[in-house]
Fold:
Amino acid sequence: MKPSGKLLSAAVLTGLLFFPRCTEPEMPVYKTAGNAEAARSITIIAAGDNLIHDIIYNSARVSGDEERFDFGPNYAQIKPIIEKADIAFVNQETVLGGKQFGYSGYPVFNTPQDAGQGLINAGFSVVNHASNHVMDRGEGAVYGTMDFWESRGITCLGVFRTEEARKTERQIIEKNGIKTGFLSYTYGLNGFSLPRDKPWLAGIIDQEVMGQEIDALRPHCDLLVVSMHWGNEFQHTVSNEQRELARFMALHKVDLILGHHPHVTEPVDVIDRPDGGKLVVYYSLGDLLSHTQSSWTPDTITGALAYIKARKTQGASCTIDLAGIIPTVCHYGRERRSPFIVYPLWDYTDELASKHYKPNMTVEYLSAAARKIFGVRVMSREQYLANEAPRRTSSLNRAL
Structure:
């Protein structure tokens, strides 16, 4: 599945191919926020695909009430991580159009809106819908999805109510004195099309359009984040198209790319931008919650939470001090209507692994799979807590 869009000219592409990568440290650099007057900082948590197959929402049905679903248990184990972030992003792969469209799973999805409430209750505040499944149930379901998030005050990316809204409304969240702007694009729509009279309804990868929208948003935010639904399914290898698009966004001064769609994890990279800044690229965060069927492998049940700390000093641009990874496991057992529960890998046990629907796993096997992709960016519980403690302390001092 190759992203569509106009290619860069050969001359520009040749120049971009020689952008140097940042030299990776032997271990990630973890910095504290420091004096509140000297630096302002935010923490961003980002998750990959929340892909709700019918077996998942059926397992979440409230007993005795076929119209209600409880997704609280699905995210309960990661909620303490998500709710502490200043900004928490997730790619909601499937539309939440409403029950009038009929609930359905693969290959044409419509997910109960209670699943969205589960994400909100877990602490997610930014939700992406520019995915290859956004048109599964037509434009009515897209508007129903926007209605749901809008009524709950959640920032929804990648879909737009009007052409004017796409041109003029800016998705910017301000936290701790830092303005973070968001844009979002998908490679395609699984054979469906945008309405002829509404080509602006969803963000599709097109470098000409992307360049215009990125350049328009850049002056209004300190940190510019682009959500990218791209890459090849079930492949850990970053495609040439992904690398080309990343270089293109470096040229346009993007700070952070949050990638998803392959349903498996892909590496993190740092690209030196021509203007002297840096672009951090999470090529794929894998699946957060899913029941993707494939030959046995831990790949589709091990995802990742991006852990990002960005800082802005007085009179200076925003910089990313930390780009870490918290590996996750989507656990579900062999019994009928087994609940689907997302665990941080550091809380997962061999006892749980022995009961997983996919057999023959150990925690060490899953840990090795995460280290193979992310290397030293994998954070231990101790490293995570060490980064959270200074932030909580400085917040307390400011409050006093």
